[in-house]
Amino acid sequence: MHRRRRTALTLSAALVAAVPLLAACGSEARPGAAAVVGGQRIEVSTVQAQVRDVRDAQQSSEQAAELIKGTGQLGRAKLYDLIVDRVVTKAAEEAGVSVSRKEIQAARAALAQQSGGDEQMAAMYLQQRGVAPDQLDDVVRRDVMVGKIAEAIGATNTPEGQQKMNEAFTEAAKALDIDVNPRYGAWDDAKLELGAYKAPWITQVTKDEEAAPEGA
Questions:
Q1: In the chain, what is the straight-line distance between the N-terminal and C-terminal CA atoms, in Å?
Q2: Which of 31, 33, 78, 141 qualifies as a FRET site for 210, CA 20 to 30 Å off?
Q3: What is the DSSP letter of 191?
Q4: Using 50, 70 and 90 to split pLDDT, how confident is the model at 30?
């Protein structure tokens, strides 16, 4: 039977909430930057804007208090997400794969159908992954890209395949020379961690072609 593998990136809201935000001031070498990745800055203002988008979406939810409580250290989670996005993009370049706008739209449509509609899909991503509606395309793009990387390098849904994925992303992270503002912690290439944030961020899920796709 033909099988389709989907690899998703996940963030654990509970772990993010449990991680204390470091109080250290930003490095003088990179004022205003939350991190420098591949020679390109991720501005603190960019992280803050993403946090505001999520908080605004959470405030509009009937479960606002619960959602906000579950993402207490959202700034670190969003910076982690932005770093991971660049790591995945680098790994995709090395693997010779890319994702088109058409593929993103198709993946979103499939997720919306599986979730019961666009609103339900947006609510699911907000609750499970701390993603605001206007951030969905970036997250879906990254998820599709990770799946294509796994296929390109022959990483199956096994411990050996998981190790192969980890190695691909670790090499990409090393090549990007990631430097993080101490306020958010320190990046670890080998463990793919930001500060004390230790949540595993690669989950491989194998589904039969006719089975509903994993939503998060």
A1: 24
A2: 141
A3: T
A4: low
**DSSP code of 30?**
S
For residue range 57-78, what is the model confidence (pLDDT) as tens digits?
A: 998 888 888 888 877 788 999 9
Distance CA 34, CA 77 (A): 12
Q: Which two tokens stand for residue 109?
A: 């449509």
Q: How confident is the model at residue 209 (pLDDT cuts 50, 70, 90)?
A: very low
Q: Please tell me the distance from the alpha carbon of residue 180 to that of residue 34, in angstroms, as a whole number.
A: 6
Q: Give yes or no for residue 168 having a pLDDT over 60.
A: yes
Closest C-alpha to 165, from 175, 152, 155, 157: 155
Please tell me the distance from the alpha carbon of residue 88 to that of residue 74, in angstroms, as a whole number: 21
Instruction: Check if the beta carbon of residue 177 is closer than 8 Å to that of residue 85.
Output: no
Residue 112: how many other CB atoms lie within 10 Å: 17
Q: Which residues contact 80 (CB under 8 A, 6 or more apart)?
A: 11, 194, 197, 201
Phi, psi of 3 (to 5 degrees): -125, 150
Note the pLDDT of residue 126: 92
Mean pLDDT on 179-208: 68
- 29-to-82, 182, 184 alpha-carbon distances in Å: 20, 11, 15
